[in-house]
Structure formats: structure tokens, C-alpha cells
Write a structure and sequence with these properties.
Elements lengths: L2 H4 L1 H17 L3 E8 L5 E9 L2 E9 L9 E4 L31 H14 L18 H5 L4 E6 H8 L6 E11 L2 E9 L6 E2 L9 E9 L5 H5 L2 H10 L1 H4 L9 E7 L2 E10 L2 E12 L17 E5 L3 H13 L3 E5 L23 H12 L4 E5 L9 H11 L4 E4 L4 H14 L3 E6 L5 E7 L7 H13 L14 E2 L7 E2 L2 H20 L9 E5 L12 E4 L16 H11 L1 H4 L1
Parallel strand pairs: 5-7, 5-12, 9-10, 13-14, 13-16, 14-15, 16-17
Antiparallel strand pairs: 1-2, 2-3, 3-4, 6-7, 6-9, 7-8, 10-11, 11-12, 17-18, 18-21, 19-20, 21-22
Length: 569
């Protein structure tokens, strides 16, 4: 329902305010009210200035007075530079970014008069009205469906190229309906001048081309790309002689300083076709990560279990700077996994480790990822299990995201024997909360004992503990509907586990006073309310390192003699 039907008093006050403005302002006339096709309240009015009449109309949106009215030209003309195209809305001093419901349509009309008269002062000189318009990359490109993205640093590289010399480039190009997007991979033969350190999107193609720095006039090709193919031999012979294929298939970047255009040359029915790409310069990215994350690129993290928890931890660590992963999981991704896993429909039917590998490489460049399609602790061969455990031992941090005690025990053995820190977490049945925990060599109990201490802590509360993760993270209440953990519940626990991981990898002194936490997401079990967090104190216990059986030197000597009799002889 339109606002003026439910707020008639405000509608009447709008009419009165404009009538009063017309009485006192000689420039306002022909005020007339009407109702539009969609029951929008509309007022027509004329503004006179220096013998010129501007016919305008103001549309009150259905969301008024929470959002501003729109003032437009009735004859479809462009009246001012502060206008969204011919016949478009005037950009006035009252806009969505500074709007207040107390502002009236009469004030909008006054603002329109100040704008139009300010640009047309008496005399021959034109006037300029200062703009409060802030440029937005997204707004400027919203109707551009062919985009070439460059970082600010690449512009500086292009500025340093020799003038009127064709320099080889490589770019990636990708279509995601309705937009074609391209970006530079390298400049110079085999990236000799510059090479992109960022990731190349999956399912993108590689295109060759040339960057051509020139002081010649190029703006016309941005507006009419097809002219470039016609004028290329005559106006850019240095570039034309490098385009050995006819027609050429690839990109050409033309420009100088910070003014560049991107052209995509494409063969079509044996003829040279040229498309223009909107050049978009990405904002600076310095300072996006804490300084102590710089060393994460050299750390290897092993994640066992690439389901809903493990996939989220992996992507978080990748965004934080980790580049080396060992992923272990034999499971296949199905459509039912879409409700919680960080992967999407493109992963259906694939092994989770394979799809997670592709996802991580879409986040970070030069990722080193080892994938093992194995379920440790399950019916795997002894040789396969040994191979995986040996690979886990090479990691700087072990993360168990399986909630499976058999997998936990094997990982705990690797952590203890090789003195590796380990993190594990569980999402409680029904999404009522979860536990995150760590075991650090010489600081915490060994993982198996730590887990026992956590279990004892839970039992000590005297409240039945239905915390073991069940199928689909579900639990049945005695009364009422079942509880099922959703993506938000899983994300909270995975996020806290990720913080423990980053704390271990980046800090010598931990910011977490406890090594285990029970985190409530609902008023269930011991939790008084959502976000009720209980620290769990873990007492150092157990010996980190290889287990010693206390055998005597004579026992060892006899064992070696039995194994290597030829040496003993």
C-alpha cells in the first residue's frame, strides 16, 4: 500500500509546504499533484531562471518518508551535469546517504532551483556547482559487462614501459554470466617485467596480447573499439607488425600514465572483431592482514576431515595467509552437503579433498596442497595408513575435523611422537554448542589425555552430556521438535578452531589463557544462554615424544643381532 494512504497527514503537509513555497518564491510555478500508475504520489512543477523554464516532476517513492523523492525532467532532457543521464534523476543535496525523514518535497524543489540557477549565473560565464558525488567503482561499472581489472601497482609497471613498443602480455579471461572479466597474468616475455602474485580463477582461459604505451590519441577507441582494427596499420605500425596472426586473437592494452584502455581482438568469420573492455583499477590492498601473518606462507597445516568444519577451517586459514596444506578425507561431496560445507554445487560427485583443493587455489596463489583420499582409522591398508601418518608428521600443525575417535587417536599418536601441536573440535548434537581444544608440546597434556580431561570436566557438572556428534548434527529433545545444527552453528565452532590455529602459528605467547573451551549456542545442557563460554583448564600430563620402553642395552643388542646376523658375526 502506498505511504500516502496510511499517512495522509504527512501527504497533506507536503502539499501545504509546496504551496507556501510557491507563494513566496517567484521562480516556482505550475504546481500540480497527480497519482501515478503504481499509486505513486507525483507533483509537477516549473522552475524559471533568467528567462528559461525547466519543467520537472517529483516522484514520492512508496518508502517515503524513509527515502527521498526523485526529481526528474518532464521532457527527458539533460538539464545539469549533476544528473543521472538525459531525463534521469537530478543529484541534489538531499540524497539517500544523508536523508532525514524531516526533509520535505519543498526542500527538494528548492535544492533543484539552487542547482539549476547555480550552473546558469547571469552573464556569459557558466557556473559550476560543487559536487558532493563520491565515485564508486561498483556504481560506475554496474552496466559494464566486459571488464579488465588491474591493480594499482600494475598501472605503475605499464607507465614504465618504453614508448611505442609492443610488449608481450598474458591475461586470464573468464565468463560468469552476464560478465566477461579479464586481468593481467604477466608483462614481458615469460613475465620478465612483471608477474601476478595473485590467484588465477579456476575455469578461466589464458589469452596472449600486447601492452603498447603511447602518447597518441586513443580515447576514440574506447568509445568505438571497431575503429581500432581499421586504423591499426596506419596509426600504430609498430604494434601492427607484432600481430602476426590475421585476424589476431588476444588483448591489446593502449595508454600512458594512468589512462589505459583494454581491447579484445577476436576473429569472427575470418574478420577482425574488436571489443572494448571497461578498465577497472582495483583499490589498494595493503594492510589487509596483521603483520605477524607474514610467516604463514611457510607453514604447513594438515587437516583431516574436509566436511563442514574442516572445509571452513581450511578456507579461513588460506585467507589468513597459509599456502601449504595436507588434506585427508575419502568422502565424496553430495548435494545434501550443501547445507553446511564451504563447497558448492560444482563439487557434487567429486572427492571433497579435490574440490577443496580447487577452492583453496581460487583463494591463494601458489598453493602447495597434498590430497589424500583416505579415511584414517577406517578399513585402509596398513601401508596406506602408515604413509598418511608419515605425511602428517611433516606438518607444522595437525587439525582433526572428523569428530571420529579412531581418526583422533591416530592423529594424537603423530602429534605426540613428533611433538606437533594439534587442534580438534566438535559440534554438539543439535547445534547447542561445541568444544574447541588444542594440545601443544610441553605446554599441554598429550592429546589423548587432554581429551580425557575434557570428558571428565563435562561429567563433573552432573548434567547428562549428550554432546557426541551424531549423524547430520541432529538431536531429539524429550519434548518438541528435533534440534539440528545449521551452517551458522558449524561456522561458529569452525571459526573458533581457526583462531586457535592462527594463535599457534603466529604467536609465541598465546592470547588464550585456556587450551579448551565449551561454547554454547543455545540454552541447553550446561549453557545458560547462547554465547555462554566455559574455559576448560587442562593440566600437563603425559610425555611428548617417542615412547621409551626402558629396555636395557643388552636387550637392544640382542634384538639388533637377531635382525642383522651377518653384522653381528
Amino acid at each position: 500500500m502506498s505511504w500516502w494512504l496510511t499517512n495522509a497527514s504527512r501527504a497533506r503537509s507536503e502539499q501545504v509546504a509546496l504551496a507556501q513555497l510557491q507563494e513566496r518564491a517567484g521562480w516556482l510555478s505550475a504546481v500540480g499533484w497527480r497519482v501515478g500508475d503504481d499509486l505513486q504520489l507525483i507533483v509537477d512543477f516549473d522552475i524559471q531562471h533568467n528567462g528559461e523554464t525547466f519543467s520537472l516532476y517529483m516522484v514520492y517513492p512508496s518508502t517515503f518518508p524513509d527515502t527521498p523523492p526523485m526529481v526528474l525532467s518532464r521532457d527527458g532532457k539533460r538539464l545539469t551535469w549533476h544528473q543521472y543521464g538525459a531525463g534521469g534523476e537530478l543529484c541534489l543535496e538531499f540524497r539517500p546517504d544523508n536523508w532525514d525523514p524531516s526533509i520535505t518535497g519543498a526542500m527538494m524543489a528548492e535544492s533543484a532551483y539552487l542547482l539549476l540557477s547555480g550552473e546558469r549565473p547571469e552573464g556569459d560565464e557558466g557556473g559550476v556547482v560543487p559536487s558532493a558525488h563520491k565515485a564508486s567503482i561498483g556504481r560506475d561499472a554496474r552496466n559494464e559487462h566486459m571488464r579488465f581489472v588491474l591493480d594499482r601497482g600494475v598501472i605503475e609497471v605499464l607507465e614504465g614501459l618504453p614508448v611505442d613498443t609492443a610488449i608481450p602480455i598474458i591475461a586470464w579471461d573468464r565468463f560468469e554470466k552476464p560478465t566477461w572479466v579479464a586481468s593481467l597474468v604477466s608483462v614481458g616475455d615469460e613475465g620478465s617485467i612483471w608477474s601476478n602474485s595473485g590467484p588465477k580463477p579456476s575455469r578461466s582461459s589464458i589469452a596472449k596480447g600486447f601492452a603498447f604505451r603511447t602518447t597518441r590519441e586513443i580515447a576514440r577507441f574506447g568509445a568505438n573499439p571497431g575503429r581500432f582494427a581499421e586504423l591499426l596499420p596506419a596509426e600504430f605500425p609498430e604494434l601492427a607488425e607484432q600481430l602476426l596472426e590475421s585476424p589476431f586473437d588476444g588483448f591489446v592494452l593502449l595508454g600512458d600514465a594512468d589512462r589505459w584502455i583494454a581491447l579484445n581482438l577476436y576473429p569472427q568469420e575470418g574478420k577482425q572483431t574488436v571489443f572494448g573492455y571497461k578498465m577497472i583499477v582495483a583499490p589498494g590492498t595493503s594492510g589487509r592482514l596483521p603483520a605477524n601473518h607474514a610467516g604463514l606462507a611457510e607453514k604447513r597445516v594438515a587437516i583431516v576431515g574436509c566436511g563442514s568444519v574442516g572445509s571452513k577451517i581450511a578456507t579461513t586459514l588460506a585467507r589468513s595467509g597459509v599456502r601449504k596444506f595436507t588434506l585427508v578425507d575419502d568422502d565424496i561431496f553430495f548435494s545434501a552437503n550443501l547445507v553446511r560445507n564451504d563447497l558448492d554445487a560444482r563439487a557434487i560427485g567429486q572427492h571433497k579433498v579435490d574440490s577443496l583443493n580447487a577452492r583453496l587455489k581460487d583463494i591463494v596463489a601458489n598453493a602447495e596442497i597434498s590430497m589424500r583420499r583416505v579415511a584414517i582409522g577406517q578399513q585402509e591398508s596398513a601401508g596406506t595408513t602408515e604413509s598418511v601418518m608419515e605425511e602428517l608428521a611433516q606438518a607444522d600443525l595437525l587439525i582433526d575435523a572428523t569428530a571420529d575417535p579412531r581418526a583422533f587417536n591416530l592423529m594424537a599418536a603423530v602429534a605426540r611422537r613428533h611433538r606437533k601441536p594439534m587442534i580438534w573440535c566438535e559440534v554438539f548434537a543439535g547445534g547447542i554448542g561445541g568444544i574447541v581444544a588444542r594440545a601443544r608440546p610441553e605446554l599441554d597434556p598429550i592429546p589423548t589425555i587432554a581429551r580425557g580431561q575434557i570428558r571428565a570436566w563435562c561429567d563433573a557438572h552432573g548434567v547428562p552430556w549428550a554432546a557426541a556428534t551424531q549423524v547430520e548434527y541432529g538431536a531429539q529433545r524429550e519434548q518438541g521438535s528435533p534440534l539440528v545444527a545449521d551452517d551458522a552453528d558449524v561456522s561458529v565452532i569452525a571459526g573458533h578452531a581457526s583462531r586457535l590455529a592462527l594463535d599457534i602459528l603466529t604467536r609465541e605467547q598465546s592470547i588464550f589463557p585456556s587450551s579448551a573451551y565449551a561454547i554454547g549456542l543455545a540454552a541447553e545442557w550446561i549453557f545458560r544462554a547462547a554465547f555462554d563460554t566455559w574455559p576448560i583448564a587442562l593440566l600437563p600430563e603425559g610425555k611428548w615424544g617417542e615412547a621409551q620402553d626402558g629396555a636395557s642395552k643388552e636387550d637392544l643388542k640382542e634384538l639388533l643381532a637377531s635382525l642383522f646376523p651377518e653384522v653381528a658375526a
